[in-house]
Structures are given as structure tokens and as C-alpha cells.
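Reminder to self: C-alpha cells first, then the designed residues, so the page reads top to bottom the way the pipeline ran.
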């Protein structure tokens, strides 16, 4: 083993527990190996949880992968790891016994923090607000996490905030300070009831996914998101009520709008102002009776099927007229196949 490079040696030992690693290395070779390590993958389980880490020295470590470990906030190894000042990526995904995150303030250069599917995670330590270099925060699948600390608003460089399938009930008002945020996803956050109006301050936001969430309405402040390119409200059919705000027409960069399986009954006239809109998905919008004038640049329109009931005949005629008007305009070639569909064919009687 003495003939191998440090990188090769780390690769050979990557499947071993910490105490097994120490038994294969002695004094100087151990210190030399770990002092040069840039990437460490360690599934901390069993005897690793109680093993002494007093001499663990990783000054050059950039990536630390603890995914699928049994560590907790009180694990003794955290103290030694705080000396890893150059850490850029910390992966704590699937650490099911982690209830609270430890104090992470020492990792001032951290760029990516992954807490994916930490099902038992209930609290984020306020020190998360000191990770001012953080670019991506993934809290997807943290079903026990009910709230974000206000300190999240201190993450001035954050570009991506993933909350999918988490237990989040509210988005803190401090989110307005995340001026570099490009992506916010709350897909399947069924406990989330509203989006704060402060979201309108996210001038760099490009992708907003609220699909399958519990939100009841969109704030009018959504119209201030001038760089928003995609907006999805898919399957908010159990909670969303009221009309889509007219301010949605103030989104000059919006290219994709997904309203699939929402209970909306109409769209605002201002939707014709969406000069960049290319894709509009209305499948399953059975309460939608008609459409206003649509943007001329639209390339894809998926309209709802209509159930075969006597009361639907008036609505059926309106959609036929819509089909005819689109055929005459012929500006959307992708719509031809839709016009040929027989309305309600999926509703076989």
C-alpha cells in the first residue's frame, strides 16, 4: 500500500469504517493521508459513532459526504471537522437520525448543503444564516421540518432552494433578501398554505414550482418577478381558489405556465401580454369555460377535456369556436393535433 498515491489509497479505503482505516495506517501515513484529502465519503454507523476523532485533521477537505449515516447533532466527530475551513460541499442526505443540524458556522466557504430525505429533521440551527457563500440548499423530503429560520434570509448568494416534499408550513418573510435566488421549489408541500408577498422582491427568480402544494392563492406581487421563466401550479386542485391574479400578465420573461388540474374558472385578460409564453398547459381544468385572447407566440396549448353531460354542451361549443379561431390563425403548428381531438373522448360513457 505504501506505493499508492493518496488518492488511490483513499479509494481503496472508501468502503471501510473509520476504525478499520486507522488499523491499516500508522502514525505518519495516517496524518499525511488525511491532511491531503479533498473528498471524504464516510457512512458513519455502528462503532464509528463512538470512535474517537480527536486526531481527525482535514484542512484541505472540499467535499464531505455523510449520506446514509446515523449521525446526530451531538456526534463527537463534529468538533474535529470544524477545522475543515475549505469545505465546499456537505452531503447529509438520508441521515434519518438527524433531528437538528449542528452549528455549521465554521464552514464559511460552504457552497452546497444537502439534507435530502432527512425524514427526522425538525430544526435548522440558526447558524445556517452564517453560511453566506451557500449557493444551493436542498431540504427535499424533510417531512418533519415545519419551518425555516429567519436567518435563511442572510444567504445572500443562494441560487437554489429546494423544499419539495418537506413539512414546511410557511415561507419566512426574510426570503425577500435572497436577491440571487433563481429557483424555488415547494412541490408536494401540502402544509404550505400561502406564499408571502415578499416573494416579489426576488428579482432574479427564474423558476417557481408550487405543484401539488396547499397554497390557496397567488399573491399579486408575483407580477414583479420580471425574470421568471417557468411557473407551475400543477395539481393544486384541493386548495387553490380564486382567480389567477391579473398581475401575471406583467411577467415579460415567462415561457412556461402549467395550470394542470387546478380549479380555475377563468384566466385574466392580461395573459395576452405574456410576450415570451410558449407553453400553456390546462389539462384537467374542468371549471374553465373559455379563454381570453392568447399570446401570438404560443407554441403549445393543452386544453381541458370536457365531461359528457348535458350542462357541458354550451362549454363544448365555446371550445369548438376556440379551435376554429386557432385554425384560422395557423400561427401554432403544434396545436393542429389538439384541434383534431374529440372533446371528452377520455370520458367514455
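Designed residues (349 positions):
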Amino acid at each position: 500500500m505504501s506505493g499508492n498515491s493518496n488518492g488511490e489509497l483513499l479509494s481503496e479505503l472508501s468502503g471501510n469504517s473509520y476504525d478499520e482505516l486507522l488499523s491499516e495506517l500508522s502514525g505518519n501515513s495516517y496524518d499525511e493521508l488525511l491532511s491531503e484529502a479533498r473528498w471524504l465519503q464516510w457512512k458513519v454507523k455502528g462503532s464509528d459513532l463512538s470512535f474517537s476523532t480527536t486526531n481527525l485533521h482535514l484542512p484541505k477537505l472540499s467535499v464531505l459526504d455523510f449520506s446514509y449515516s446515523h449521525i446526530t447533532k451531538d456526534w463527537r466527530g463534529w468538533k474535529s471537522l470544524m477545522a475543515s475551513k475549505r469545505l465546499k460541499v456537505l452531503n447529509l442526505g438520508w441521515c434519518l437520525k438527524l433531528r437538528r443540524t449542528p452549528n455549521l458556522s465554521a464552514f464559511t466557504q460552504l457552497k452546497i448543503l444537502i439534507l435530502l430525505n432527512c425524514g427526522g429533521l425538525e430544526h435548522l440551527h440558526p447558524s445556517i444564516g452564517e453560511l453566506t457563500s451557500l449557493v444551493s440548499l436542498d431540504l427535499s423530503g424533510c417531512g418533519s421540518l415545519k419551518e425555516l429560520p429567519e436567518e435563511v434570509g442572510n444567504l445572500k448568494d443562494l441560487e437554489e432552494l429546494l423544499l419539495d416534499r418537506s413539512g414546511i408550513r410557511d415561507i419566512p418573510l426574510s426570503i425577500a433578501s435572497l436577491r440571487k435566488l433563481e429557483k424555488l421549489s415547494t412541490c408536494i408541500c401540502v402544509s404550505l398554505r400561502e406564499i408571502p408577498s415578499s416573494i416579489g422582491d426576488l428579482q432574479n427568480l427564474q423558476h417557481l414550482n408550487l405543484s401539488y402544494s396547499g397554497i390557496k392563492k397567488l399573491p399579486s406581487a408575483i407580477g414583479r418577478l420580471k425574470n421568471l421563466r417557468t411557473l407551475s401550479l400543477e395539481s393544486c386542485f384541493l386548495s387553490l381558489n380564486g382567480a389567477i391574479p391579473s398581475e401575471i400578465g406583467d411577467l415579460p420573461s415567462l415561457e412556461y405556465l402549467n395550470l394542470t388540474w387546478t380549479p380555475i374558472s377563468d384566466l385574466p385578460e392580461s395573459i395576452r401580454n405574456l410576450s415570451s409564453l410558449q407553453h400553456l398547459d390546462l389539462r384537467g381544468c374542468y371549471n374553465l369555460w373559455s379563454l381570453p385572447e392568447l399570446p401570438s407566440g404560443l407554441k403549445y396549448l393543452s386544453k381541458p377535456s370536457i365531461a359528457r353531460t348535458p350542462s357541458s354542451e354550451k362549454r363544448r361549443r365555446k371550445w369548438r369556436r376556440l379551435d376554429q379561431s386557432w385554425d384560422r390563425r395557423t400561427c401554432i403548428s403544434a396545436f393542429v393535433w389538439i384541434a383534431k381531438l374529440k372533446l371528452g373522448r377520455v370520458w367514455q360513457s
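Confidence is low (pLDDT under 50) at residues 1-19, 324-349.
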